[in-house]
Design a protein that fits this description.
Layout: H1 13-22, H2 35-55, H3 63-87, H4 99-124, H5 134-167
Helix pairs in contact: 2-3, 2-5, 3-4, 4-5
Pfam families: MARVEL
Protein name: CKLF8 protein
GO molecular function, one term: structural constituent of myelin sheath
Length: about 170
């Protein structure tokens, strides 16, 4: 007996879109030459310095330094993530996301939480606490304030960008 077989093949739009979008991967070299781009790179480099200076000590014995570590590592990872988004121009491929609002909320929250962490870091540094780790904690405190000022600058630029988008 003879059977009839019907085979239906379909093409997935996902694979078509994936191959089309991967061949047009954009890279924005000019972003690093802008002031927000330079601030972001500075935030990444000095933020890394903040948390490595603390991580090299026995910070886990003091809850205040645990908070500073959380803020420093959390915003270091997110800033790296946003740098990749801006460098690869991913924000142009996802127009549903209000990127100016996201940038303003990110930079604003980073500024506020880093300011709190820098104050906590500076107020927790004493020679009596642990003289062995004093220099590392003091240096991390200094760099935390520098990173805070970088996030303040990027918050300003994000606000200007957000305000120009909402006025249009």
């Amino acid at each position: 007996r003879s059977r009839s077989h019907t085979v239906t093949t379909t093409s997935s739009s996902f694979t078509t879109n994936l191959s089309a979008s991967s061949s047009t991967l954009a890279y924005d070299r000019e972003f690093l030459r802008t002031l927000p781009g330079l601030l972001m790179v500075t935030e990444i480099v000095l933020g890394l310095l903040v948390w490595t200076l603390i991580a090299g000590t026995e910070y886990f014995l003091y809850p205040a330094f645990g908070w500073v570590m959380f803020v420093a590592v959390f915003y270091w990872v997110l800033t790296l993530f946003f740098l990749i988004i801006y460098m690869t121009m991913t924000y142009t491929r996802i127009p549903q996301v209000p990127w100016t609002t996201v940038g303003l909320c990110f930079n604003g929250s980073a500024f506020v939480l880093y300011l709190i962490a820098a104050i906590v870091d500076a107020s927790s540094v004493t020679k009596e606490l642990d003289s062995h780790n004093y220099n590392s904690w003091a240096a991390s405190s200094f760099f935390a304030f520098v990173v805070t000022s970088c996030y303040a600058g990027n918050t300003y630029f994000s606000f200007i960008s957000w305000q120009s988008r909402t006025l249009q």
